[in-house]
Each structure stands twice: as C-alpha cells, then as structure tokens.
Amino acid sequence: MFKRLFGRERQANRAITEALYTRIVAAARQEPFYSAWNVPDTPLGRFEMLSLHMFLFQHRLRGEPGAAADIAQRLIDEFFLDVDHSLRELGISDVGVPKRMKKLAKMFYGRTESYKNALEGDDHPALAAALLRNVRPEVQDWPEAAALAEYVFAANRALAEQPSEDICAGKLSYPAPQAA
C-alpha cells in the first residue's frame, strides 16, 4: 500500500499527467486563435480554448479501457483544479469560488455535448454555430468560427491517429491552427 501511495508508480503517473496537461494548455494557447481568429485573449476566452482542447482530449479517450480511462479522469481533475486555481488568482474569494466552479463546470459539460454531437454528425455548420455561441457570445457574426470549426475537425482526426499507448505514456500533439 505505501509503495503505491509514495512510490515510483505515483510519481510516474504524476509526470504523465503533467506532461499531457502541459500539452493541452500549450495547444489552447496557440497564438493564431487569439490573433488571426479573434478569440478573446481574456480569462473567459482562454477558458473556452482550454475547454475545447480538453474536450478533444476527453473525446479521444472516450470508451478506452484501463489506463486510458484513468488518465482521462486524472486530466479532467487537473483541468478543474487549474480552473479553481485561476479563479483564486483572479481574486475570487474562497466563498465565491465554489459557486463559480459550479457554473464553469456546467458550461464545460454543456459545451462538450454540443461539440460531441457536431463532431459525431460531421456537422461543420453546427460546430461553427456552437463555437460562435460559446466563444464569442457578444457578437452575432464571427466569420472565424468556421476556421476554428475546421481546426477542431482536424485536431479530432489527428488525435484519433495517435496510439493510446503513446498518449498513456504522456505523448500528445495537436495540430497547429492554419490561419489564413
């Protein structure tokens, strides 16, 4: 028991979780999203892009057994810990964090459902509409939503081609957005 709690296996699992989460965050922070595609470079805009990339990761590992399922759960836990930490850094009080976390979790899971339905239905316009609704709710028209939707489909294909064994070893790569 003590070996599992404090041993090498736990350290290796932590290293894999950190490596994967670092890659997800890096993918979400790629500069073309914010410069060429007008994703707001604000805490909420960054949350949207991180949520989108976390969704893609979770979607890739959905239904995978064993270690992949465990890693998917650890990564979603890490994501919400990071969101909690970010709220506190923004100055949200200890009393206000749980209420905001509940709202952000609801937002995340609502988005994942609409993104999943669009991906599985190969419905590019529906994905672009969902992205417009979520990433740029303050505007009625966001031409870059179609380019972001195409990126999501490309990222989904790229992740599907990556072997589960590689992902479980901490290797993960997202494509670079091709800004026009």
Q: Poorly predicted ranges (pLDDT <50, ≥5 residues)?
A: none
Structural class: mainly alpha
The level of helicity is over 70%
The main β sheet shows up as: none
The radius of gyration computed from the alpha-carbon positions, rounded to a whole number of angstroms, is 17 Å
Order of helices and strands: HHHHHHHHH
Task: Describe the structure concisely.
The protein is mostly helical.
Descriptive report:
InterPro entries: Ubiq_cyt_c_chap (IPR021150), Ubiqinol_cyt_c_chaperone_CPB3 (IPR007129), Ubq_cyt-c_CBP3-rel (IPR014569). Belongs to the UPF0174 family. Belongs to the CBP3 family. It comes from Aminobacter ciceronei. The chain is mainly α. The protein is built from nine helices and no strands. The protein has helices spanning 2-6, 8-28, 31-35, 43-61, 67-89, 96-120, 124-135, 144-160, 164-168. Helix 4 crosses helix 6, helix 5 crosses helix 6 and helix 7 (124-135) packs across helix 8. The longest helix has 25 residues, at 96-120. It is globular and about 45 Å long. The N and C termini lie far apart (54 Å). The mean pLDDT is 88.
